[in-house]
Amino acid sequence: MLEFFSRQVVEDGIMKSGNNSSLGTRSWVVWLDTLAKIAGILTLFAAILALTLIFFETRKIREGVQQLQQATASNQFAIISPKTGDIVDPSLVLIGRTPHPEMNHFLVATPVKSRTGVVQDGPVQVSANGVWFGIAQLGSTAVGEGESFMISCVATTTRLSSGPLPPNGIPKDAVFSEPVIVTRKK
C-alpha cells in the first residue's frame, strides 16, 4: 500500500513538473522510501513487543492457575490411596489429605452389600500440613472376600469408638471425605 502511494506521488510529481529527473521528485521518493522502511521497522517492533507481553501474561496466568489448583487440592478432604476400583488386601493402609488437621480423623469402612459403616481403630495419624494415614480392616478371615467396600474418612472434634457407626450417633460437627470404593481380594 505504501509502495503504491509512493509511486503515485512520484508519477504525480513527474506529471506536474514535466521533468523525469527533477530534484524534487527524487527527494520525495527517498523520503517516502525511508518512511516506508521506518514504518516497517516500527510495525515489526510492535509485533515483537506484543508477542513478548502475551507470552509473559500467559505464563503468569498459567502459574496462577497452577497455584489455585494446588491450593484447591490441598483444601480438599480426600483419600489419595487406594483409588476407587482398586483390588486390596483385607488389611490396608490408606493415605489422604484434610483441611481439618486439628480434628480427630477416623476411617469408616462400609460393606456395599450391608451398608453398615464400621468405624476402624483410630484416630488416624494426621500431620500438621493435613496429610493423614491409617489402617482399615475389611471384614475378617473369610467374611468379606471378593466384596466391595466403601471407605471414607470422618473428621470430628469428638472421639469415635471402633465398631458399627450408629446413624444417630454421628457427631454434628462430623465432616466426611469423598469415599473410595475398593474390592477385597479373594
Report the C-alpha radius of gyration, rounded. Answer: 37 Å
- CATH top-level class of the largest domain: Mainly Beta
Structural class: alpha+beta
Number of helices: 2
User: What's the shape?
Assistant: rod-shaped
Stated plainly, the CATH topology of the largest domain is called: Immunoglobulin-like
Largest sheet: 7 strands, mixed
Q: Give the end-to-end Cα distance, rounded to a whole number of Å.
A: 80 Å
Work out the number of β strands.
Answer: 11
Key attributes of the depicted protein:
four-stranded antiparallel sheet, 186 residues, seven-stranded mixed sheet, alpha+beta, 27% strand, 2 domains, rod-shaped, 2 helices, Immunoglobulin-like
Provide the fold topology:
Elements: H1 2-17, H2 23-74, E1 78-81, E2 87-88, E3 91-97, E4 104-111, E5 118-119, E6 125-126, E7 131-137, E8 148-156, E9 163-164, E10 175-176, E11 180-184
Parallel strand pairs: 2-11
Antiparallel strand pairs: 1-3, 3-7, 4-5, 4-8, 5-9, 6-7, 8-10, 8-11
Helix pairs in contact: 1-2
Description of the structure:
- This protein is α+β, with helices and mostly antiparallel strands.
- About 35% of the residues lie in helices and about 25% in strands.
- The protein contains 2 helices and 11 strands, in the order H-H-E-E-E-E-E-E-E-E-E-E-E.
- The strands form 2 sheets. Strands 2, 4, 5, 8, 9, 10 and 11 form a 7-stranded mixed β-sheet that branches. The protein has a 4-stranded antiparallel β-sheet with strand order 1-3-7-6, with no helix packed on it.
- Helix 1 runs antiparallel to helix 2.
- The longest helix has about 50 residues.
